[in-house]
Design a protein that fits this description.
- The structure is a single chain.
- The protein is α+β, with helices and mostly antiparallel strands.
- It has a single domain, classed as Up-down Bundle (Outer membrane efflux proteins (OEP)).
- It contains eight helices and four strands.
- The chain has a four-stranded antiparallel β-sheet with strand order 1-2-3-4, with no helix packed on it.
- Helix 1 packs antiparallel against helix 3 and helix 3 packs antiparallel against helix 8.
- The protein is elongated, with a radius of gyration of 37 Å.
């Protein structure tokens, strides 16, 4: 009955108020089981970009950040194995031989004696875990190992998402560079037209200067975009574990791309897949077990010993007459006075539990906030993109009309400059919004803890509550 004792409090994860629906996606949801240990899938294939898929595949084998996280997980597993070893007895084997001469002047001796004392045997020591100290230490170590596994999953997902975010930023810069190259071509033709009109006396030198200013400014912006693209490419190289000189991503002129649709039921998967929430919950379990370890110190440590073997000084070491054994000692040790050290350790363990519980609630609230932010951004950026594309198309038409009127002498070149500047700004803004949409989709994947679709593209009609339990 004593061996079944445990001084750790009964464990239950702290509750967090779970909304009936998301503010940005008000669909019904029900309780479900945690899926933090489930594979997160190759979620980047949702974007159907072979270059991105190739880069993502390099993270697993080359990223030093991921390798460090794997090493931390391996260390946590080894620590759990070390703690579990205390559940079993310690067996020690020994053998020794001593050549000895006894004193002729010892009490009761008539002469000196010489003999060899040979001993071979084994001893066993086992702590009787009557108060659950060892078992709670094992539970704490295992919970920490599970938290480390969740940390590893979180690091992997974060790296994947950071890579995708940087990649779409790179493609946005490619689209911007392509736009600027087209703009330089258009501005060059406008400059030629202005110079020709100036030579014919139809335009002033002021018009030529304005056209030259626009052209030079567009060329300068190409260099600025190239500089930012190079830095982004170097960032991608670091994420995949390569030196910048070993990675080159060819630019494309096909635009940023379009984000995949977000199903309305997506919030149903939030806490089932979030590895950071799972890690926070496991650390509460570890802190709870440590309370039991601290409380067990108020009771005696009981240790059982057992020894046996052979001893002989006249040969025949491994014979029955040379055998010996001893059961014991059965020892118990208890500190009667320690100046309040044990009480302080209990208070420390309880405070650490409260800290872990607070961190868990903060992690859960952060998870909900990130999903709400991403859902709101996805919805509002879609509307912004539609309006910005309309604005860019209207600005392009205005620029064409202004240049036509200038060519026919119906408008001055200032109107052309104004229209061309507005058109370029509107088109660059449209590219920026589309890039943000792709980045928001990546952020939404990260907030959901991975791929938010099942293999057939459908979502399960369920959601998770924050009572995550890894058992």
């Amino acid at each position: 009955m004593l061996a079944g004792c445990s001084l750790a409090p009964a464990y239950a994860p702290p509750t967090v108020a779970v909304p009936a629906a998301y503010k940005e996606a008000p669909t019904g949801w029900t309780a479900a089981t945690p899926l933090d240990a489930a594979p997160r899938g190759a979620w980047w294939t949702l974007f159907a970009d072979p270059v991105l898929e190739g880069l993502e595949s390099r993270i697993e084998g080359a990223s030093p950040t991921l390798a460090a996280a794997v090493a931390r997980y391996d260390a946590a597993r080894a620590a759990a194995g070390e703690a579990a070893a205390d559940l079993y007895p310690t067996v020690t084997a020994s053998a020794d031989a001593v050549r000895q001469r006894t004193s002729a002047r010892r009490p009761g001796a008539n002469a000196a004696g010489r003999f060899t004392d040979a001993t071979a045997g084994a001893s066993l020591a086992y702590e009787l875990d009557l108060w659950g100290r060892v078992r709670n230490s094992v539970h704490a170590a295992r919970a920490e190992a599970e938290a480390s596994a969740a940390d590893l999953a979180a690091v992997r997902l974060s790296l994947q998402a950071s890579l995708a975010d940087a990649y779409f930023r790179l493609r946005g810069l490619d689209a911007e560079a392509a736009l600027l190259r087209e703009t330089v071509g258009a501005y060059s033709k406008a400059l030629e037209l202005t110079q020709a009109r100036h030579e014919g006396g139809a335009s002033s030198g002021l018009d030529v200067s304005r056209a030259q200013t626009l052209l030079s400014d567009a060329r300068a912006q190409i260099s600025d975009v190239a500089n930012r693209r190079a830095a982004t490419e170097h960032q991608i190289a670091a994420l995949v574990g390569a030196v910048p000189s070993a990675l080159s991503i060819a630019p494309v002129d096909t635009g940023v791309g379009s984000p995949p649709p977000v199903p309305a039921e997506a919030p149903a998967l939030l806490v089932q897949r979030r590895p950071d929430v799972a890690a926070a919950e496991r650390r509460i379990a570890a802190a709870n077990a440590q309370i039991g370890v601290a409380r067990a110190a108020f009771f005696p440590d009981v240790t059982l010993g057992l020894a046996g073997g052979f001893e002989s000084s006249h040969g025949g070491l491994l014979s029955a007459p040379a055998g010996f054994w001893a059961l014991g000692p059965l020892s118990a040790a208890l500190d009667l006075f320690d100046g309040g050290r044990r009480q302080a350790r209990v208070r420390i363990s309880r405070a650490q539990y409260d800290e872990a519980a607070a961190n868990y609630r903060e992690t859960a609230l952060t998870a909900f906030r990130e999903v709400e932010d991403s859902l709101a951004a996805a919805r509002l950026l879609a509307a912004e993109a539609a309006d910005q594309n309309s604005a860019a198309a209207a600005a392009a038409r205005t620029s064409d009309l202004a240049l036509t009127r200038y060519r026919e002498g119906a408008a001055d070149y200032l109107q052309v400059v104004t229209a061309q500047t507005a058109a370029l700004d509107a088109e660059r803004a449209a590219i920026a919004v589309q890039t943000q949409r792709m980045q928001t989709t990546v952020a939404l994947v990260r907030a959901f803890g991975g791929d938010y679709s099942t293999p057939d593209g459908a979502l399960p009609a369920r959601t998770a509550m924050l009572q995550a339990d890894n058992n």
